[in-house]
Amino acid sequence: MGMTGVLRPGHAAIRVLDMKEATHFYGEVLGLIEVGRDSYGRVYYRAWDERDHHSIVLREADSAGIDFFGFKVDSVATLDRLEAETQAYGLKTSRVPAGDLLQTGERVRVEIVSGHTIELYAEKGKANSPQMVDNPPPWNSESERGIAPIRLDHALLYGPDIEKVQDYFVKVLGFYLTEQILMEDGKTQLAIWLACSNKAHDIAFVRHHEPNKLHHVSFLLDTWEKVLRAADIMSMNKISIDMGPTRHGVTRGTTIYAFDPSGNRFETFSGGYQTYPDWDPLTWTWDEVGAAVYYHDRALNPAFLEVVT
Amino acid sequence: MGMTGVLRPGHAAIRVLDMKEATHFYGEVLGLIEVGRDSYGRVYYRAWDERDHHSIVLREADSAGIDFFGFKVDSVATLDRLEAETQAYGLKTSRVPAGDLLQTGERVRVEIVSGHTIELYAEKGKANSPQMVDNPPPWNSESERGIAPIRLDHALLYGPDIEKVQDYFVKVLGFYLTEQILMEDGKTQLAIWLACSNKAHDIAFVRHHEPNKLHHVSFLLDTWEKVLRAADIMSMNKISIDMGPTRHGVTRGTTIYAFDPSGNRFETFSGGYQTYPDWDPLTWTWDEVGAAVYYHDRALNPAFLEVVT
Amino acid sequence: MGMTGVLRPGHAAIRVLDMKEATHFYGEVLGLIEVGRDSYGRVYYRAWDERDHHSIVLREADSAGIDFFGFKVDSVATLDRLEAETQAYGLKTSRVPAGDLLQTGERVRVEIVSGHTIELYAEKGKANSPQMVDNPPPWNSESERGIAPIRLDHALLYGPDIEKVQDYFVKVLGFYLTEQILMEDGKTQLAIWLACSNKAHDIAFVRHHEPNKLHHVSFLLDTWEKVLRAADIMSMNKISIDMGPTRHGVTRGTTIYAFDPSGNRFETFSGGYQTYPDWDPLTWTWDEVGAAVYYHDRALNPAFLEVVT
Amino acid sequence: MGMTGVLRPGHAAIRVLDMKEATHFYGEVLGLIEVGRDSYGRVYYRAWDERDHHSIVLREADSAGIDFFGFKVDSVATLDRLEAETQAYGLKTSRVPAGDLLQTGERVRVEIVSGHTIELYAEKGKANSPQMVDNPPPWNSESERGIAPIRLDHALLYGPDIEKVQDYFVKVLGFYLTEQILMEDGKTQLAIWLACSNKAHDIAFVRHHEPNKLHHVSFLLDTWEKVLRAADIMSMNKISIDMGPTRHGVTRGTTIYAFDPSGNRFETFSGGYQTYPDWDPLTWTWDEVGAAVYYHDRALNPAFLEVVT
Hints:
Four copies of one chain form a homotetramer. The first copy, chain A, is 19% helix and 35% strand. The first copy, chain A, is of the alpha/beta class. The first copy, chain A, folds into two domains: 6-143, 2,3-Dihydroxybiphenyl 1,2-Dioxygenase, domain 1 (Roll); 150-306, 2,3-Dihydroxybiphenyl 1,2-Dioxygenase, domain 1 (Roll), CATH 3.10.180.10. A nine-stranded mixed beta sheet of chain A has the order 15-16-17-14-10-13-12-11-18. The longest helix of chain A has 14 residues, at 76-89. Chain A is globular and about 50 Å long. The relative contact order of chain A is 0.16. The model of chain A has no long low-confidence stretch (mean pLDDT 96). Chains in contact: A-B, A-C, A-D, B-C, B-D, C-D. Chains A and B meet through strand 1, strand 2 and strand 18 of A and strand 1, strand 2 and strand 18 of B.
């Protein structure tokens, strides 16, 4: 009751081509806090206002992209139940042992039909920031080191069969559809936004012929003024901006899309609305697809549909 | 799973001393949209971005204050279940027939130990704003008529035995404690903030010797700049401001407290954070109670503890 | 002493292809206040916070562009003196009689070497807004009707021989150079920004082979949040955006370039700094020309150099 | 012509009771950049976006307050001329030799009838910040160290005979009156705001029985969001806030008044408008004096009229 089951996006495991470049970017430019490295050479980060041990895990690899995207669930019992229900639904699952990710309990992996690996887990260590719990200030010095997002917010993934992905997230994981863009036929979904919370999106998918692609991992900023500051910092560091600052029609959020040094798109965004599962999903028609994505330009840039990792 | 059970604050029924003054204030200055009047003379409003028929109900009476505060639940089955569980918990309930409030289904009333009347309901008509669902713009002309809050957000109520109130909201209604202020003894709660969502508060209580008192009903604004605009509009309309613009330590929200023409305090606020039930509640100690409430002044004004309706 | 001589940009006379479309745009979308029409069919506007009778004059014509750009000077004596000094400097001047523009005194016209017509005048009627002088509110309902800029701020003009234009504005009119972009040779100016005030620019020029071209007329907004609102309103009205919201490196201003229905570019901007004549001009080198114009993208879009009216 | 004569406020010399406390406050909390100390033990600061060597000079003394407030003029010739005209006007002047203040040329001191010492000077060393002149970024790391105002903006001084002060500033120094508050009689000025630029105030005076008193020295911030950040930093550092965040009716600026550790009031403000000498001064009547000063509360707090140093 209230908020139960799947609680929130908890981690994104991102492949980078050069770890030294990547840690400079994620640590100094994006301004995440490095919280650990593991025996595989993976580097862990959290955003300044997150309460769990980490949310971003970088792995050096020959190709950029996303290894997996994980959600925290409210208990081990829920984890076990969702594993069983996922198997009953017909998707393949596997277990990753506790400790494989630093300070993280057992994870259940699900291969969804878009080709992505979604993880569920119930246990992760707490962030080492007690000053933010007892008489907490509204922000601290970490809030102004680099772009300094508040948290990992969501991911937008590209792959096929997104209507089946939606079916699984809704029927098994308890998500609901908040917005969608329809294609020319007025029926087929080009893109879907799904939430397990009051947020306008905890995960989103765009229909795409190649499976298992990453469009972007998204980080939350506090205000439109912080979006400007983020764009300034990107310019100061010669980060390649794909689009923005602008507004999305979908979610109303104000946004910048840009690329990490490995070519993984990331988003820094602010705003949007809070939503509820009993609300009708907002629906964008094909003639308004430009405004749905880039509200000010009212047209897609080619990179939106084509450049993924 | 995900968001279920109690979804959100759905209505506040406020007593006003003079309906003509009140409708000028709520309709023109606060900028809510009048959506109906009933045979009892009650006047109904919704905020521009709300999806349900109404959220504020005004009733003319000899004393100001709040008649009841209602929460929308996800289904009639949930309503029935929560009624039964409330009775089993030992609180008295009653049913108000469908249609007593315009476009609203049956309501279950609960008399909680702080003396307040809390309502639960599963059905309410939709707002007549289709343009906000299909290819919706991020805002419209109603967003700039008066103060124009986004929605009714929460209420802060004053009464005794708030630890028992918390116990009921947590055990039966599925809320969780997000923040608290402790008294000199380091144990007794002076104030509690409770959520059934990602919001930092859906309802809050302050310990007070008199039962059934209203401290404020709160309305959400989009940004700190809109808080400034709200304060400007209050001044232009000679609305009495109690405090602000300032920031709360609790919830980090930026805020103004002011009074409607009947003396009911209301809040227009922005900001804050999104929270989860697995997080530790933020705790403010007695020596920091000033900063907890008014972060900039670090001291309570006498009205905070004494002026209620 | 203090501020004397040429005080500020006072009017821009813009050619539009269709007056009905134009008045809808300037009056309802941009949100200027129509203050009069004259016997030539010209339509006059002022921005909500301007103190003079008008600042924008529209004339229907077969080609878009700017007829003239005028500056208010502090007295008739100054007007006479500047006319004489302009003639002595070697530029051709002419007089336009009082009343040719509504509520405007005699104007001195100067044909500058870039091909543009610059006007000077000492007398113009006051805006009919007494409520903004006695116990004035910080803003009023006109501030939220359409984009609602604060004022006409400056113009950017394209033409040849801009170093000679600078010489005239500095030596005769008392302007000073605030910023410049240099070409590949490190010497030739690609663009110059000139001020007669504390503003980062009262007029600016870009070197261009065709004379007498308009790049944009610019309107001031209060904040970056108002820039977002302006972009939203442009989208709602399907106004074609050229670039933005973004930041200029030059002046630090945050900005949108867009086109009126006749294809005249206009700018809505906010921010920037206040400057003084004893400061060194800020200088941008050729390798940073992209950042100078569009700070976030760090690259010019082709339209910047090519699309003028 | 254009901007000539007196250009801007250039320095404020403030007396502090304890230099160690003061340097912590001005350097770390307010976030000015320490640029030197002289043989008298005075400590010099500039704000991050200022172009001259320093703007604030602290001197340890037995009483708080202001020693002098200085204006930069455009040339030595102007300095000589203003000295002569001041003497001819009937005010006493004196010369302070070059080098008495670090990197500062000869200063002309004027004892004005309100009891304050006003200085004029033509020469001061440049700030050591070349990176802000060639391909300058819009801000840098100093912009986020402490409150980090953009510049010293103005001072508000308390003393008698302010109509005579106005007469001198207007007739000799070339200032103009931008706003005024009138007393009950509708004629006597309670307060005056004077500008030598486009700024709404370069200096201001309130009528007061004691001569030579400081109400506040004021520092400019970029935005209302930076005003919030300033208030947060004040709270984090337990700086005593007198009033705000709020808006002034006069100048429209958004503001906080607070006290340095010695009890000198300072202001951090943002916003306001740009004004011109040919505009009518804005006039506030006695019944609106509350709104003139504190636009939201519409009432003076007692400290405004009584607490000065």
